[in-house]
Amino acid sequence: MIVVDDQPIVLAGFAAIIDAEPDLDVVGTAADGAAAVEAAARLRPDLVVMDIRMPGMDGLAATRLITAAEDAPKVLVLTTFDLDAYVFEALRAGASGFLLKDADPDELLSAIRVIAAGEALLDPAVTGRLIAAFASGRATEASPQPAELAALTPRERDVLTLIAEGLSNAEIAGRLGVGVGTVKTHVNALLTKIGVRDRVQATILAYDVGLVRPRR
User: Fold this and answer.
1) Residues 6 or more apart from 21 whose CB is under 8 A from it?
2) pLDDT for 129-165, tens place per residue?
3) Buried b vs exposed e over 46-66: b needs ≥16 C-beta within 10 Å?
């Protein structure tokens, strides 16, 4: 993976923590968005740990460029504030989740592994803040795309609704009374049909098209 941050100490610290793990490998680092885009194209990592606020090209612009590429890596964005407006823009740009910079090392490593595995890309607390932002209008509005849902089966719509509520595959399986493997099959199918890369983007689309409404 690639680690991106404009603060040298933070960059070195994150890279050292990640690279010390036997199942994780840091193949490069970058100090700004432009360097991150270049490194992602050259090194083709599976995942990019991306700071948002950087001089020059920020993490938002870099995320948009990186995730637009063919076979794009997943992006975990880092932010100082959990309600940073840039977070929502980064998620719309294709990021797979976000983490606060003051998270402890175990949380960082767990977030990387979760996103790399493609399971619950936002934990329920983070999903709740994302939903609250939609309800209050803090997140940027996108044009509804109801046609995106036309190809879904009724069960796939049910699964998409539960994804948007922040449930994991195991929780969805329990709610619907089916096996986890069946849920994974439905998730993979619906992501392909609605043309999104992961559960975060599926959640955003579900709210955009009105399939799910924020609880008041």
Assistant:
1) 109
2) 665 665 555 555 554 456 778 889 999 999 999 988 8
3) ebbbbbbbbeeebbbbbbbbb
**What three-state secondary structure class fits 84?**
coil
Nearest residue to 170 via CA among 153, 189, 187? 187
Q: Tokens standing for 135?
A: 């309800």
What is the value of pTM for the model shown? Answer: 0.74
Token representation of residue 140: 């940027």
Structure-token pair, residue 28: 């490069």
Nearest one of 101, 116, 145 to 9, comparing CA atoms: 101
- Token code pair at residue 173: 């399986």
Place of tokens 């796939």: 156
Let me know the angle formed at the C-alpha of 84 by 115 and 64, rounded to the nearest 5 degrees: 55
